[in-house]
# Entry
Amino acid sequence: MGNDEFSVSDSQRTRRWVSARPALWLVVFVLSPLLLLILLAYGISVVLLHLALWLTWGPLGRRVLFVYSNSPVWQDYVEQNLLPRLPENAIVLNWSERRNWNRWTLSYLAFCFFGGSREFNPLAIVIQPLRRARCFRFWRAFRDFKHGNRSALAKVEGEFFEQVRRIAQRRAI
# Structure
């Protein structure tokens, strides 16, 4: 008796799924042009942002955008250990002062695009000519640092400054 109950409900679910499939395919078919337009617009915006960064920041030698805030967890560390090691032409934004940011600047647009909506502070973005920008997210590393684990911070910090060093070497050549 128990097996019959399961087989009936399984067959009913199968019939519902089969009957719902044409409707699902119709929705996918109708929405696919819209989805393709959204993907195309996103791709174009990625390319245009990279081109703008390469063409405007490249000749000025700007390769680094660094964003942090006045958090008690990382402000002192960032200001004492990271900011002094940044290239002199790096762009530094303080998230705590974002009300004063000009929303029509390339640095703001780059931060919004690459930073996203989670774990965006502290963040370093490295711009390389004819390559995708590379983001270094420090938030998790500082969270671990706050609890006594320094290894994650050392790792992301090392990777970031290694990338900055490589770019500086390429410029020198």
